[in-house]
Amino acid sequence: MTGQPLPLIHIGGTPREMGLDFGKARRESILHMVANVKTFLGQTYGQIRLTWPEAILQAHKYLPFAQELTPRYVEELRAMAEGADVAFDDLMVLNCLEAITTDALHLLGCTTFVATEERTAEGRVLIGHNEDWLPADESDVFLIHAEPEGEPAFLAMTYGALLPNIGFNAAGICQCCDSVYPSDVRIGVPRIFVSRAVLAAQTISGAITAALAPHRAAGYNHTLVHTSGEAYNVEVSARHFSLMYAQGGILAHTNHYLSRRMSRLENDAQHLIGSRVRYFRAMRLLRRTHRHNRETLRGILSDHVNHPNSICSHEVLDENPLDQQKTVCSLIIDLNEREMHAAWGVPCENEYFTYRLSA
């Protein structure tokens, strides 16, 4: 993907209209992601013990909860399937993947950090995020400029057939998500449906409330930021949560729980050592510069200390399929300007292109 801008689609209207536009515009990448995940489940059957028909049966268990709490996003997904001419069941599997594999993927690469107006050169609110995922899906990353009926317009990143959740909206709310691994998971509203709902928030408290949806299956860490400079990590599990506020104008998160309360729920903490190293590295780099700008954030996002478990993550081909990951997209968001600067692939090798929320 070196040197190329991410594809951008424009969608809008009712949930059905949004989904149809999405499905028609990205049919090839949706089909590609379905094929990739089927291959992945085949490669990891000895560990996950999940066939595609079994994955569909598992995803069905989550659907009633998503339908009850987030019916408009279920409708979006149904229309997406119709627009792409694929089975809705297949798209439910993709949007429940972390849950139905019982978090066996252990995708440990995502890194998010914030510098508010106290710590930026021009008094801006800046967010950096590296999105780490399965290398096979890198070619399917794209951006969505959406104008939903009855909700704020938003600009977000996603890939394949996943509902968008990482981006910002016209109300000045930004969300970045990092996977975490609680022990209290249950059948409930899938994480991605919850985080899709956060993009509709009008206020920072509304965004936090949306992240804490009742009957949720598990949780992400939601880094939630407002143009005013209010910034939080909202660490979430199925039944618990913890709020952490940006101190001194900086904030970071990776893939482990930071709060003492939530860390008690963490499965296999030793497996998360690499995440802890990335977190402390990101915080050190944030503290080292008093006035951040886009270039200093790019430097942090491109950091390779502790490779291959570094902030900028490159694919290691001989790993177990469950551990294969890489940085598939890197984002720098300027909330004041409503701009997203996005690099397709690892940020150390790829150019950032600028996209603006125009609504």
**Overall mean pLDDT score?**
94
Please identify the structural class as seen in this structure.
alpha+beta
CATH topology of the largest domain: Penicillin V Acylase, Chain A
- Give the SSE string: EHHHHHHHEEEEEEHHEEEEHHHEEE
Largest sheet: 8 strands, mixed
> Rg from C-alpha positions?
18 Å
Helix tally equals 12
How far apart are the first and last residues' alpha carbons, in Å?
A: 28 Å
Tally of structural domains: 2
Poorly predicted regions are none
CATH superfamily of the largest domain: Penicillin V Acylase, Chain A
Count of strand segments: 14
The coarse silhouette is: globular
Question: Keyphrases for this structure?
Answer:
2 domains, alpha+beta, Penicillin V Acylase, Chain A, eight-stranded mixed sheet, globular, 359 residues, six-stranded antiparallel sheet, single chain, 33% helix
